């Protein structure tokens, strides 16, 4: 029902920016019994929402920002769902001018976390609360229950949390929404979520490519494999939709749709941000980085076209035991996925330390169990692992994952070596396995790197048998001195 705006400040929440995500979230609030004030730059979208979905709950139609702000109960809560970047700053400025100290502005877009840190600091000076909230789940999640990652001041969560928790996905009676931490932490965590999403998608893509190129399976048969996998440890939203995409036939040609889609993956940028931030924090997120680079390589269409036909060398014969190789791929996918999550959680720990956020990995695993794009059965295992030991040095070291990798390791090696001998690219499978081998190695060639650095730049090194820093007089008598 539409509530006349002359009835005064009635709405519990306002949503501005009524493209699909914004309007679906507004409808989700209304369906949960909240009165929602609506605002959009052009009134046509507001009217369309009310026309098509007005019966779902109580909406207040507003045209100007002043009218919109005036329709809200105090403390006023406004969710901004506009394009990340300059449009967000413009809307924040307009809102801030019309709001009062204690009011709360929530940015639900995929904002860069450093922008959120800046915005939070500047609005805090004006007495306003700014909450950067990561929202995952796409259009469907926005309407039926997303995973929500709100950062910002803890006090604002008291007024905001119950509202957000009411519209979030629920798993075992627990909402997929919790206060993440101060300022930009919500958007930081959402960024890493997206990085993991990229890695997950790339790994699934490599498995699909192996099933097709090494075993000769067509899209329908590969769909059946993914459906079967979805009944086990790999159960997840992304594996489920993979089967659906692969099973879709193109109406125009009758071929599997996937076979007529151009093989150049695009990106809006959150995966790239994850890797940039990981570089700054010094955290090796190799699986995520390979996924971002794989998208970039796929998109270099001219270069790829020019390179078709380059030498492959002598290729091995295809595997003869299809059932065994399929199982090997399943195991490799699972183990590589563990690595991607382990690296993502390492980045979250590093971000938390860098910005003093005091983030709790078990909380994140809990709210990623439902609603979001990376929702998966094994997030329960991640939650258990961090519940048991919040200071786990790496997810890979948790007993459950340690055992899972021990079970998978032979398959994983067979997949990477077979793919290499067949000339099939597996950048994420291979780099995840190399990461694992490097992590468990007693000695790394970094000792040589240190020696080289000392040789050309007198950068010094540490010794295994003495404290302090040392330098060899490389251009002198090559004796060692303490630095
Ligand atoms: C989500 C998604 C969502 C969006 C991605 C797509 O969690 O709901 O991650 O945020 O679909 O940003 O990202 P790319 O366009 O970069 O693949």
TrEMBL record:
Family recorded in the similarity comment: Belongs to the 6-phosphogluconate dehydrogenase family.
Binding site for NADP(+): 17-22, 40-42, 82-84, 110
Species of the source: Rhodococcus jostii
Chain ranges of the 6-phosphogluconate dehydrogenase C-terminal domain: 186-475
Catalytic activities: 6-phospho-D-gluconate + NADP(+) = D-ribulose 5-phosphate + CO2 + NADPH
InterPro entries found in the cross-reference section: 6-PGluconate_DH-like_C_sf, 6PGD_dom2, 6PGDH_C, 6PGDH_Gnd/GntZ, 6PGDH_NADP-bd, 6PGdom_BS, NAD(P)-bd_dom_sf, Pgluconate_DH
Name of the molecule in the record: 6-phosphogluconate dehydrogenase, decarboxylating
Entries under PROSITE patterns matching the protein: 6PGD
GO BP annotations listed: D-gluconate metabolic process; pentose-phosphate shunt
Chain positions recorded as substrate binding sites: 110, 136-138, 193-194, 198, 268, 295, 453, 459
Pfam families linked to this entry: 6PGD, NAD_binding_2
Catalytic residues, chain numbering: 190 (proton donor), 197 (proton donor)
Domain of life: Bacteria
GO MF annotation terms: NADP binding; phosphogluconate dehydrogenase (decarboxylating) activity
Gene3D superfamilies assigned: 6-Phosphogluconate Dehydrogenase, domain 3 (1.20.5.320), N-(1-d-carboxylethyl)-l-norvaline Dehydrogenase, domain 2 (1.10.1040.10), NAD(P)-binding Rossmann-like Domain (3.40.50.720)
Pathway where it operates: Carbohydrate degradation; pentose phosphate pathway; D-ribulose 5-phosphate from D-glucose 6-phosphate (oxidative stage): step 3/3
Main function: Catalyzes the oxidative decarboxylation of 6-phosphogluconate to ribulose 5-phosphate and CO(2), with concomitant reduction of NADP to NADPH.
Quaternary structure annotation from Swiss-Prot or TrEMBL: Homodimer.
Keyword vocabulary terms for this entry: Gluconate utilization, NADP, Oxidoreductase, Pentose shunt
């Amino acid at each position: 029902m539409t509530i006349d705006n002359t009835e005064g400040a009635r709405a519990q929440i306002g949503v501005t920016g009524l493209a699909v995500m914004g309007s679906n979230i507004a409808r989700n609030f209304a369906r949960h019994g909240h009165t929602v004030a609506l605002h959009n730059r052009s009134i046509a979208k507001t009217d369309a929402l009310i026309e098509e979905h007005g019966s779902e709950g109580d909406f207040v139609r507003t045209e100007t920002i002043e009218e919109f702000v005036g329709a809200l109960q105090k403390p006023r809560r406004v969710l901004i769902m506009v394009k990340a970047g300059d449009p967000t700053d413009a809307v924040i400025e307009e809102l801030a001018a019309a709001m009062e100290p204690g009011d709360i502005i929530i940015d639900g877009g995929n904002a860069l976390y450093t922008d959120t840190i800046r915005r939070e600091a500047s609005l805090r000076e004006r007495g306003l609360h700014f909450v950067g909230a990561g929202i995952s789940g796409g259009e469907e999640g926005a309407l039926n229950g997303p995973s929500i990652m709100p950062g910002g001041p803890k006090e604002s969560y008291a007024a905001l949390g119950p509202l957000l928790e009411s519209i979030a996905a629920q798993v075992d009676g627990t909402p997929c929404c919790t206060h993440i931490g101060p300022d930009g932490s919500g958007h930081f965590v959402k960024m890493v979520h997206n990085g993991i999403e990229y890695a997950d998608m790339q790994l699934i893509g490599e498995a699909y490519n192996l099933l097709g190129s090494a075993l000769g399976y067509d899209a329908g048969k590969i769909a059946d494999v993914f459906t079967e996998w979805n009944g086990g440890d790999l159960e997840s939203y992304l594996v489920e939709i993979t089967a659906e995409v692969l099973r879709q036939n193109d109406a125009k040609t009758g071929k599997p749709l996937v076979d007529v889609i151009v093989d150049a993956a695009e990106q809006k940028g959150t995966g790239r941000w994850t890797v940039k931030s990981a570089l700054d924090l010094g955290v090796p997120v190799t699986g995520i980085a390979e996924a971002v680079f794989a998208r970039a390589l796929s998109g270099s269409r001219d270069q790829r076209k020019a390179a078709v036909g380059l030498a492959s060398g002598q290729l091995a014969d295809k595997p003869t035991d299809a059932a065994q190789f399929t199982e090997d791929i399943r195991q490799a996918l699972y183990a590589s996925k563990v690595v991607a999550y382990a690296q993502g959680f390492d980045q979250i720990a590093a971000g938390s330390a860098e910005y003093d956020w005091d983030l709790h990995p078990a909380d994140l695993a809990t709210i990623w169990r439902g609603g979001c794009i990376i929702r998966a059965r094994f997030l329960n295992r991640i939650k258990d692992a961090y519940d048991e030991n919040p200071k786990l040095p790496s997810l890979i070291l948790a007993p459950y994952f340690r055992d899972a990798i021990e079970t998978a390791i032979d398959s994983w090696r067979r997949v990477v070596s077979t793919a290499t001998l067949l000339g099939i690219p597996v950048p994420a499978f291979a780099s995840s396995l190399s990461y694992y081998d490097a992590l468990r190695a007693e000695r790394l060639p970094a000792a040589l790197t240190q020696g080289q650095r000392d040789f050309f730049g007198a950068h010094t090194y540490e010794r295994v048998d003495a404290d302090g820093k040392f330098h060899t007089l490389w251009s002198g008598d090559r004796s060692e001195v303490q630095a």
